[in-house]
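Hey, sorry to bother you again with one of my protein questions. A protein chain has come my way and I'm curious about its shape. I'm sending you its amino acid sequence along with the C-alpha cells. I owe you a coffee for this, so here goes:
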Amino acid sequence: MGRFDPIPDDKFTFGLWSVGNIGRDPFGDPVRRKLAAVEIVHLLADIGAMGVNLHDDDLVPIDATAAERDAVSAPSRRRSSLRG
C-alpha cells in the first residue's frame, strides 16, 4: 500500500453540497437526481465516512421556523454516528 492510500483509521468527512450536487452547468440540464439530506447521510455512512460537513443552509433553509428546523434535521440526527 502506498503512503497516501486511505486506510480504515483515516477520518473522512464530506459536505452535503459536494455529494448532493446535481451536476448542472449553465448550458445544460442536471445530470444527477437531487438527493435528500438524510439519503446523503446514509450513503456516506454506508461507505464508512466519519462525518458530514454542513454549509449555511445545506440542511435547514435559512428562513425556517424552529418547528421546520426540527422536522428537517430529525431524520439526520437519528443516525448521529455515521459509523454506528
The helical segments are 16-19, 37-46, 66-77. The chain has a mean pLDDT of 82. The radius of gyration is 15 Å.
